[in-house]
Amino acid sequence: MSRRGRVTVGVLIGVFLLFTLLGWAVEAWTDWLWFDEVQYTQVFTDVLTTRILLFLAVGLAMAVVVGGNLYLAYRLRPLLRPHSAEQATLERYRMVLSPRIGTWIAALAGIIGLFAGLSAQGRWSSWMLFRNAQPFGVKDPEFGVDIGFYVFEYPFWRYLLGVGFTAVVLSVLGALAVHYVFGGVRLQGIGDRMTTAARAHLTSLVAVFVLLKAIAYVLDRRALLLSYNEGTKLYGAGYSDINALLPAKEILAYISIVVAVAIVLFSNAVMRNLVWPGVSLALLGISAVAIGGIYPWAVQTFEVNPSVRDKEREYIERSITATRDAFGIRDTQSTAYGANNLRPPASLATDTTVVPNIRLLDPELVSQAYTQLQQVRGFYDFGEKLDIDRYTINGNTQDYVVGMREINYRELTEQQGNWINRHTVYTHGYGLVGAPANRVVCGGQPYFVSGYLGEQTGEACAAPQEQIPVEQSRIYYGEQMGQTGADYAIVGQNQEGRNVEFDRPIGSGGEQYYTYDGQGGVEVGSFTRKLLYSIKERESNFLLSEAVNENSKVLYVRNPRDRVEKVAPFLTIDGDPYPAVVDGRIMWILDGYTTSGTYPYSERINLQAETRDQLTGTGTFALAREDVNYIRNSVKATVDAYDGTVTLYEFDETDPVLKAWNKAFGGDLVRPKADTPEALAQHFRYPADLFKVQRNMLARYHVTDPGDFFSGSDFWEVPNIPDAPDTEVKQPPYYLLTQFPGQESPRFQLTSAVTPLGRQNLAALISGSYVDGRPQLAMWELPDQTAISGPVQVHQRMTNNATIRQQLNLLSSNQAQVEYGNLLSLPFGEGMLYVEPVYVKSNQENAYPLLQKVLLSYGDGGSYVVLADTIDAGIKQLVEQGQQGGAPPPPTSGENPPTTGGNQTLTPALAAAADKVESAWAEVKAARAAGDFEREGRALKAFDDAMTEFQAALNASGGAPSTPAPSGSPNAPPGTPSPTPGG
User: Fold this and answer.
1) pTM (2 decimals)?
2) Which neighbouring-strand residues pair with 401?
3) Exposed (0-12), middle (13-18) or buried (19+): which is 712, by Cβ within 10 Å?
4) d(CA 73, CA 445)
5) 973, pLDDT greater than 60
6) Looking at the structure, do residues 818 and 900 belong to the same domain, yes or no?
7) Residue 341 neighbours by CB under 8 Å, 6+ apart
């Protein structure tokens, strides 16, 4: 290369390094300023220091090992080499390398060390946990080792072993190349193909590799408790692993040590050739296949598979126990709920615990109503989904649907969307808006009790009232602040001292402006800071615009979830942050999880897959694709919506993972649970993503008997969304303020229905709530033979009812469409009450869904169904149906022949007709249990014909017997003709 070419390349490399290092320096500096703003600089410094030290330690070690072996290979080169065509060809390379061999080796070792260091610095979290390991106080069932070894130490030991293998392999390849170039290894010519020095060097490296393999076999023994077992289809070592593979790994470890010694001795001291070392390596490979592969396969095939249930029983039990512990479902309360009452009880009409708190507003559907009725300006928005919280107003505690009036930067007009307006004028939203979840007004609108801006919106009956006291309503930090172009705001008065931030509309068409005076933000008045953020944001206006002056501060990382993830990078943040008014300030509350993927014998899941449902991506954030087998809701985090203050509160005081992280960052990163303000704790709710994971685990691991678990006959599954079951999208859990059987008072709880695997009838209800500040999971299990319908069946039966279908068709037209809200399953009165709000949305522009009707059902989902204007009216109709015998009365035992009242026995014709009724209803019941609606329609037709035949036989006999109810079966659908005259 010419001198000019070398200069050009040097300049290009220099420019590249300059901009790369400048970018890293700017990011580091602005990160430091941000962490200083939120007062978490220790997180920044500790993580940065750890990454730098790991980069240097591993990078330097890798460079020294590889470079040292390259240099040793050069030093061991033969001074005299036999003449051959091969050596003549290699001479030109030797002439290039030899004068600067030290430079070449240092450069190559430096590059390898650089990449090794870059890889190592990404392991900062593993190193921090390794250094600050905590005991779990629980030992694994096989080796008796504390679980903390697997969670904290095992991953880093595995990484170090991988680094060792990489270093040795690169050293072998590099040394072999150097020996070849400088004649230590030859392919042609007379004499040995390898010099004594080269042979000793290379075989020593191979021996080190084999010794590392021995260490790997030792770690593999521990890894068996984390691996997937094909026999049990569970995680953790099974019968063949423990009785065949485990001893095989130990034997192979000893063999590896013997082979390593043999390689060194036979190749250099005894035989002085590579034959026996090669034989030793071949024997090690054969042993690995035979002892570590064929023998365990034979045990599995011929001993375990013929009697898997019995052989694997102990190991299935280990997996059940470990999974229930690791996912926090061990202490789940289980209650048998018969649900054997199929007739609406009269107590429904007078209930004060369940019925008054039934939630009608669907947070996803009414968000459009909030935006239209409480928007005030076109650029305000409430997001795709609102949140559920509870407040005590005028002594009455109930759940509210709440949302934040934030700025949607995508809705700014072209005039409003320039850089000045986007970043210095439209800087914040205004107000938390709430409405009781069980009340609507104005033909289906929410009844707003908070968030009014001074202008009349909607009809007079929906005029908001200030009932949730908020002292600071401005929202500088919110979920919509992470949009492109909205990630930072510049606040502060202009150079003339005037307020420039749009605050809110006032009066009739007036507008108020404001200047931020909170603690958040980084001062950006100096030229250095302007230049710094101009480079960071690639925006020259930081330097050129008068809007950035000595009074200015820049607010960035304004999404609450992003802020907490940055402050606590070791936490997995729940996908549904929610706002709450705490002591007059609007706070974002976020749930933080500590996780691990190395808990022995525990089921491993993918967090993203397990938490995905109908709302994911349309109102809630999708979690990362992280494989875990341990999770705890160990932290409750808050972000002040005005000044961005981030606070972490300990929630699970027993979590060893949180203790390790807290210790790693000095011991005071997370505040103790006792420091949690009572006003804040009142708004804590069971986290949605954790509940989904635990619910999905309970669908299988509620079965604790190993034999029953192996058969899988009692597994459950989460049903699809009721109004669109063919989409294969799971029904989300829902928050309710209600009282379930066995609970002493109403609780704010997250609830979900589950159905038997492959069937659609109801299997159980699962609920998560807080009792005295501690999480509690509970299940209400229905009998296996229950005919109670699941959510999908209930929705279809309610909407397919002939009378109700007519009414729904009237609501739906070319100008409007029907949308269904949350289908709630509520245990009440030894039966099941189902409630599903019905919304109607016009096809006109800017229309929003209005709650028009409420579907209610009691019993098996089809016997008692009403479509009412209100909950109270629907409950009244259900009770009236139950009292008036809108369906056959409860079934008789079926053991005695039907009678006509008194002791009069039925005639043979009537008895035959009654038997047909009994058989027809049995077919209806079977069709319902199978979820086959076509079959059920035919069965109902046959049942109706049997009832008609019974009526004809009754008229012919002139008697008046009681209704022939099918024995042991649920009630017939409403509208079924009664065989009793006037019945």
Assistant:
1) 0.85
2) 388, 435
3) exposed
4) 82
5) no
6) no
7) 829, 830, 831, 859
